[in-house]
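Design job #97: recover the sequence.
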C-alpha cells in the first residue's frame, strides 16, 4: 500500500473511531463528523481507493451496494474524478439509535477528467442511517 492509500485508510479508520467515541459522549459534533466522513469519501473517489470507500459502509448494506453501482458506472464510462468539494451545511440527529442523521450538504464542485464543468449542485438533505460509525443506508430526508 502506498503512502496515499495508507493516509486515506487512516482517515477512514479515524472517522469510524471518532464515531465510536462520540456515542459514549452526548456532546458529539455531528456536523464535524459528517464533514470528515464526506471528505474521506471524496478523497477516496478522487484517488480511486475503492477499499477506503468500502470501509465507510457496512458490508452487504444498501449504502455499499449503491457505491458498487457508482464504481461500476465510473469504470464503464471511464469517469475519473479529479476533485470534489462538498460542504456540510447542517446536521440534525433524528434518532440516537444508530444514530440516524439528517445531513444537508452542498456539492460546490466535482471536476471530472476531460470535462470543463464544475458540476455544482443544489443543497440536498439526506438521511444517513449509521451502524457502528459506518453508513448502512442513505435516503432522501422525509421533507423532500
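Job complete. Output follows.
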Amino acid at each position: 500500500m502506498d503512502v496515499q492509500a495508507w493516509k486515506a485508510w487512516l482517515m477512514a479508520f479515524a472517522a469510524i473511531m471518532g464515531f465510536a467515541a462520540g456515542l459514549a459522549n452526548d456532546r458529539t459534533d455531528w456536523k464535524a463528523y459528517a464533514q470528515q466522513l464526506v471528505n474521506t469519501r471524496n478523497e477516496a473517489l478522487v484517488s480511486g481507493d475503492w477499499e477506503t470507500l468500502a470501509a465507510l459502509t457496512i458490508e452487504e448494506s444498501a449504502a455499499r451496494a449503491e457505491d458498487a453501482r457508482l464504481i461500476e458506472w465510473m469504470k464503464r464510462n471511464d469517469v475519473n474524478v479529479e476533485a470534489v468539494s462538498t460542504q456540510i451545511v447542517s446536521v440534525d440527529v433524528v434518532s440516537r439509535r444508530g444514530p440516524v442523521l439528517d445531513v444537508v450538504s452542498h456539492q460546490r464542485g466535482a471536476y471530472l477528467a476531460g470535462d470543463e464543468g464544475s458540476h455544482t449542485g443544489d443543497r440536498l438533505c439526506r438521511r444517513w442511517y449509521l451502524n457502528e460509525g459506518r453508513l448502512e443506508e442513505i435516503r432522501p430526508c422525509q421533507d423532500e
